[in-house]
Design a protein that fits this description.
Layout: H1 10-18, H2 26-36, E1 41-44, H3 51-63, E2 75-78, H4 82-95, E3 103-106, H5 112-121, E4 125-128, H6 130-138, E5 149-152, H7 155-160, H8 164-173, E6 179-184, H9 189-198, E7 203-206, E8 217-223, H10 229-239, E9 245-248, H11 252-264, E10 269-272, H12 278-290, E11 295-298, E12 313-316, H13 323-330, E13 340-346, H14 351-361, H15 380-400
Parallel strand pairs: 1-6, 1-7, 2-4, 2-5, 3-4, 5-6, 8-13, 9-11, 9-12, 10-11, 12-13
Helix pairs in contact: 2-3, 3-4, 13-14
């Protein structure tokens, strides 16, 4: 079977042949005739199976007849990410070269003025992300009443990104009599509910079991420690005959740090993540496609929509949190009948995540042995430095908490101040030779210490029976009214006679 057998026009078949394709994939062979018959369709297929061409090709032939009007696109394709929207636009440009069709791309991160201008001139195909489309619709810059063909692509990804309410709103603005095509790699219950609500007697096409992985991809999982991931990645990049590779991380910060680390180790690496503006993303993708760099570190924003021919390897630097993301990640390799290899690094904390992936895909991912044994030396200088810092911090931290140092850490006795610098003990009389306490010299006769000046001016200590009463002891009886109740000065006892 070839594309001419599917009912496509000669101009379209010529364009497809010029791109080097002559045999349709299974999903193309089943979907294209149904779309040309104007039927609603649900297509369940994994990434890399030619799903995009299965709706782009028949849409070109359908839209070849008709006329475009200002602000009223004739067809609408909804995509979850900017990258995937741009990829679909490239397909329309490539396959529609022999047709007079006008296309507009509505995505965030670019100037809105050019998009509005294109809409005002009239477009046959509008490719948009839900957010930007809703923005323009609320501004009154677009009308959806003339849209007769709707494509919801990557519906499961739409669900993950929280776009389902926007899609429901958009569908309510479209004509009731329309053709709707829904494509997804999986069919969770919310997507099934969406299909039941907005599709009319759709034809169901399933070219592979939901969430199954491509058989052309050799999959492996690598047991590593969290700190051993970088060295394991570098080892595989050097030894596994990697021509081009995409490395997926769960966090944007990890993407930036890993790309920097790979560059420092001599690899031609780039990065793409959600914090980059659209122009920077496109520039980095162009470098990757051109071969200027052969390693692209990416977050899940790039897991869908990256269609780069010849990607030999996919590395899951982090085991994906959502099992569906695993299918889309590894689908970046092994495309169009080619073979590919996928490695997933599994740290101890990833046990539950990898179990969910294996449950979803219905297969046990084989373990790949790096043949490195215990890679203690592979953990890098950063880890050793960090451990050294922890050891150096221990005494300091203990002092900060107010703990006394251990006895063995004190200075030896001989290093302490000499005895002769202190008041010599031997000058004192032996205890048995000392005078009884009551016969000892009064305090004013003893040598005063420097820190206690003017001791001699203090009165001699009174007898014990005359001392001040302690707490709890009965005080002296109060003086009678008019009597002197304080100490009697000595001069009052001297007679003037």
């Amino acid at each position: 079977m070839n594309f001419a057998d599917l009912g496509l026009s000669d101009q379209l078949v010529a364009a497809v042949t010029a791109k080097g394709y002559d045999t349709p994939t299974p999903i193309q062979a089943q979907a294209i005739p149904s779309v040309l018959m104007m039927r609603d369709l649900i297509g369940i297929a994994q990434t890399g199976t030619g799903k995009t061409a299965s709706f782009v090709l028949p849409m070109i032939d359908i839209l070849a007849h008709g006329r475009r009007r200002a602000m009223m696109p004739r067809s609408l394709i909804l995509e979850p990410t900017r990258e995937l929207a741009a990829q679909v636009a490239e397909n329309f440009e490539a396959y529609g070269v022999n047709h007079d069709l006008k296309m507009a791309l509505l995505i965030g991160g670019v100037q809105m003025g050019d998009q509005v201008k294109a809409l005002n001139e009239g477009v046959d195909v509008l490719i948009a992300t839900p957010g930007r489309l809703m923005d323009l619709f609320e501004r009154g810059k677009i009308l959806l009443t003339g849209c007769d063909l709707l494509v919801i692509d990557e519906a499961d990804r739409m669900l993950d990104m929280g776009f389902i309410p926007d899609i429901e709103t958009i569908c309510s603005k479209l004509p009731a009599q329309r053709q709707t095509l829904l494509f997804s790699a999986t069919m969770p219950p919310p997507i099934k509910k969406l299909a039941d609500k907005f599709l009319s007697n759709p034809k169901n096409i399933e070219v592979s079991r939901p969430a199954s992985s491509n058989l052309n991809i050799a999959q492996h999982k690598v047991a590593v420690s969290t700190r051993g991931k970088r060295e394991a990645l570098r080892q595989l990049l050097r030894t596994d005959n990697v021509s081009t590779a995409i490395v997926f991380c769960n966090r944007k910060t990890t993407v930036r740090e890993l790309a920097k680390s790979l560059k420092q180790n001599g690899f031609l690496a780039g990065e793409i993540h959600g914090d980059m503006d659209q122009s920077s993303r496109i520039a980095e993708l162009d470098r990757f496609k051109a071969g200027t760099i052969n390693i692209l570190v990416a977050s899940d924003v790039a897991a869908r929509g990256l269609d780069v021919k010849g990607v030999s390897h996919v590395f899951n630097f982090d085991t994906p949190w959502h099992p569906d993301d695993y299918v889309h990640r590894i689908g970046r390799t092994g495309r169009a009948g080619a073979t590919g290899r996928a490695f997933t690094f599994v740290a101890p904390d990833d046990a539950e995540a990898i179990a969910n992936v294996e449950k979803l895909t219905g297969m046990k991912i084989p373990v790949y042995d790096l043949d490195g044994g215990d890679r203690q030396e592979d953990r890098g200088q950063d880890e050793r430095a960090e451990s050294g810092e922890r050891e150096e911090r221990k005494p300091r931290d203990r002092r900060a908490r107010g703990e006394r140092p251990a006895r063995q850490e004190r200075a030896p006795r001989e290093e302490r101040a000499p005895r002769e610098e202190r008041a010599p003990r031997e000058e004192r009389a032996p205890r048995q030779d000392r005078q009884p306490r009551e016969e000892r010299a009064s305090r004013e006769e003893r040598q005063p210490r420097e820190e206690r000046p003017m001791r001699e001016e203090r009165a001699a200590r009174p007898d014990r029976e005359e001392r001040r009463p302690r707490r709890g002891e009965p005080a002296e009886p109060p003086s009678k009214p008019g009597e002197w109740n304080g100490p009697i000065p000595g001069f009052l006892g001297v007679s003037a006679l």
